[in-house]
Design a protein that fits this description.
globular, 18% strand, six-stranded parallel beta sheet
Length: 190
Amino acid sequence: MARILLLHSMYGLRPAVHQAADRLRGAGHEVHVPDLYDGRVVDTPEEGIAIKEEIGSEELLKRAITAAAPLSGDGLVYAGISLGAAIAQNLALGDERSQRLLLMHGTSDMAEGAVADDLPVQLHVADPDFYEPVDWLNAWYLRMRRARADVEVFRYPGVGHLFTDPGLPDYDAPAAERAWAVALDFVAGL
């Protein structure tokens, strides 16, 4: 069993995030899903970006750190969806006890000299993805490998950015099922 911190996308704590947490719980894991947006949920990327900018990146990171702090004693699996994945990456790379890093639909830049020391990292991303362009992903992969992370990238051709969210137009049921099957195996690898 893993202890998992699952962070939501820029759309807020949508039903799809709870469904993802339930999938992980169904596999026997303890899952914590903080609400970084104080209850706000939106329907468009523009609204999500507006809330993200209103709160600010530093405050979102601070809220995520506050949520992770009481859980990280024995090590956590950090997981996130889109914006939440970017935040989860920052938390995992800053926590030497990180167990794994599961990224659904998103990545983040890395500080120069970051060290991941064989941290297992798995990324699931649309191909192509407007928010995660190929050049960015290639550079991200090389930076993660330089940081000594053990990285796997799974690309899903022809789907939209948030293809695992049944409540959004990007949803692709076959791709979502494939992604979650692989992700569950990854987390079970503890």
